[in-house]
Amino acid sequence: MNAKKIDKIAVGFLYAMAGVIVLILFSLLAFILWRGIPQISWEFLTTPSKSFQTGGGIVIQLFNSFYLLILTMLISTPLSLGAAIYLSEYAKKNLLTDFIRTIIEVLSSLPSVVVGLFGFLVFVLQWGLGFSILSGAMALTLFNLPLLTRTIEDSLRAIPLTQREAGLALGLSRWETVNLVILPAALPGILTGMILAAGRIFGEAAALIYTAGQSAPALDFTNWNPLSISSPLNVMRPA
Amino acid sequence: MEDSQKKLAEHSGKSRLEKIGKTISFLCIAFIVFVVLSILYFVASKGIATFTKDGVSLIDFLTGKIWNPGSIGENGKPLTGALPMIAGSFIVTLLAAAVATPFAIGAAIFMTEISPTVGKKILQPVIELLVGIPSVVYGFIGLSVVVPFMRNTFGGSGFGIISAAIVLFVMILPTVTSMSVDTLKSVPRYYREASLALGATRWQTIYKVVLRSATPGLLTAVVFGMARAFGEALAVQMVIGNAALMPTNLITPASTLTSILTMNMGNTVMGTLENNVLWSLALILLVMALFFNILTRWIGKKGAMN
């Protein structure tokens, strides 16, 4: 066997592997769409679910998912924005920064069950929030922080140094440079990061079982009093 | 004179603003660090309570084969052998990684070295889409496709280690592939050109030059996939059968650390032994996550030296 023959065999093998993967991935997508799409109708999305009878829809679950998503983003965006600004603009290259980066990496590698259990222990029991949207949103925040911080930091770092120098040369302080020059320039990257993070939050399950609970009480969408249990805006209700 | 001297001596509004800004951003980062440390502390203190408060010996916990924390064994101690779950977790993870690695690296080579256009147009978008699919969806597909298939092929219930490994394989495949692609893309072009100029065939170039220089990155990708598989809870719980028995073969129901955790945490009372041993399982998960983390760092360091 000469080198050319081996080359042909190896390349053929690689083609086969890529083919198998494409097959697996496409059949996965096709399966989800084929089984899922016929079931989805406007009615399914807009009626509350019914126990003990067939029919009904997912409107409450859908609303809760989005509400959780929005709350989580509201809590986690400012936090990770601040953290990212510190890491990209202020952090010096020293042991403390190394330590902080390690910590963030550790947080991102924690299994979501562990994060959920921590949320259960601290938010649900210790702080007495019970199984609620708020506990769920805070657990998801923990889960979301490292990823969001990293993407925001990357997009801040992608802004060329000249922009910063220009800002400083105009007599702006560093903080003003970040706020007025760097952030607007990095906005598209930050938004992409937020959308990616939102996708991850939307699909997260294990961290929520112990924090948001698994039952959704009936909601009255005309009730806008945030303190009533049946109001969709109440953050203390289980979801 | 007095006035201007004073004005020059005190901090300007801008420098105050700068200080406030720096403090705010530092507080954010400090908060994250605090949260992580408290997660580590809480889970560790809860997990250790099994051994300190309830007097379970660490060796019994790690090597015992019978999991039934509610009842007392022959030696008068509760039956808290976690070995079935530990073994289940490791077997499932290793199987999934062992199958996924060649496929992922093969696909990555295909996308970067052999057919970049097809790779970019077809494989890349599909893989990116699949990375974003929630794990519950993978578990559900496993439940409705893989489990019946296993039941018809091998008999039994269809729930088992092999089903879980297949689900995890499909789940980590996109992640490992896209990380491998990034690694291969970062191999400098002149490495390839030098090898081809020496008369090496394409395969020789790939095998002897590209793969060698990308090894640390590829290892990181695999370890990352393993960490994800190890920590995955719901997808595994849906297909593995959740029987806390020592796994004897691949097609009977078994369990992993995560599946037992998600199944039982809601059914036990806080502070009891049954509950504390579950926290010990969580502690094992945490330690493994840290271990994977250290492993990737170590690989990265080794790679940087070469």
In short:
The complex is a heterodimer of chains A (239) and B (306). Chain A has 239 residues and is mainly alpha-helical. Chain A has nine helices and no strands.
Draw up the topology in text.
The complex is a heterodimer of chains A (239) and B (306).
Chain A: H1 3-36, H2 42-46, H3 59-90, H4 95-109, H5 112-126, H6 133-157, H7 161-169, H8 174-203, H9 206-209
Helix pairs in contact in A: 3-6, 3-8, 4-6, 5-6, 6-8, 7-8
Chain B: H1 2-9, H2 13-52, H3 58-63, E1 67-72, E2 78-80, H4 83-114, H5 116-131, H6 135-154, H7 161-185, H8 189-197, H9 202-231, H10 234-240, H11 257-264, H12 273-305
Antiparallel strand pairs in B: 1-2
Helix pairs in contact in B: 2-12, 4-5, 4-7, 4-9, 5-7, 6-7, 6-10, 7-9, 7-10, 8-9, 9-12, 10-11, 11-12
Describe the structure.
The complex is a heterodimer of chains A (239) and B (306). With 239 residues, chain A is mainly alpha-helical. Chain A has two domains: 3-39; 59-209, MetI-like (MetI-like fold, Orthogonal Bundle). In chain A, 71% of the residues lie in helices and 0% in strands. Chain B is flat and about 90 Å long. The mean pLDDT of chain B is 81. The interface between A and B is large, with 75 and 83 residues.
What structural category characterises the helix and strand content of chain B? Answer: mainly alpha
- What distance separates the N and C termini of chain A? 65 Å
- The CATH homologous superfamily of the largest domain in chain A is named MetI-like
Number of helices of chain A: 9
- Which CATH-level-2 architecture of chain B? Orthogonal Bundle
- In angstroms, what is the radius of gyration of chain A? 24 Å
